[in-house]
Amino acid sequence: MRRNITYLFMYNTRIILIAVAIFMCCAFTAETKPSKLKNDTTYLRVSKGKKASYLKNGLHLVLPPLKPAVTSSVKVSVSRPDDKLLNDVQLYPNPVTDQINLKYTISRNTNVTIKIMDVLGNDITTMFSSRVDSGDHSINYPINNKLTSGFYFVRVVAGTESVIKRISVL
Question: How many domains does the chain have?
Fold first, then answer.
């Protein structure tokens, strides 16, 4: 008998909580008058300094406009201190015959140095050395008679980070 009363009390409590939640939802939506709403945005307005009677002790909400099936195309890039500074380093074509193409992405303004090194680590030439803004960058570097056939390394240094890519020259 006692167990049945406990279960009945718990069941009734749940039903009461659900009913109160539904009532509160209906009460707040019933307070807004459709004639005062300008568009599909759900917010309450006060016009010309006069407070409407339904706003006296009501809930004051400002919500963004609701536009179904609309997606935003705005890119937001927020850099955190633990994020990488140098990303997406791509070197093509490999093997190289006449020109080296290099693409990379920088997350914030910094100095970038790009060097070509031989297998022993000796600097052969500097492809690029300058301060660059954040974003995607690409460099085309012709190698006509500057490099002999063999293996080389391209080192991209941005701030304190570096990426090394291997290339072979035909």
Answer: 2
Residue 102 scores a pLDDT above 90: yes
Are 21 and 92 in the same domain? no
The string of DSSP codes covering 28-84 is HHHHS-GGG--SS--B---BTTBPPGGGSSS---B-----TT-----------TTS-
C-alpha 28/C-alpha 45 separation (Å) is 15
What single-letter amino acid sits at 6? Answer: T
Share of the chain above pLDDT 70, in %: 61
d(CA 115, CA 83): 24
66 located within any domain: no
Alpha carbons 65 and 21: distance in angstroms, whole number: 24
CATH number of the CATH domain containing 155: 2.60.40.3080
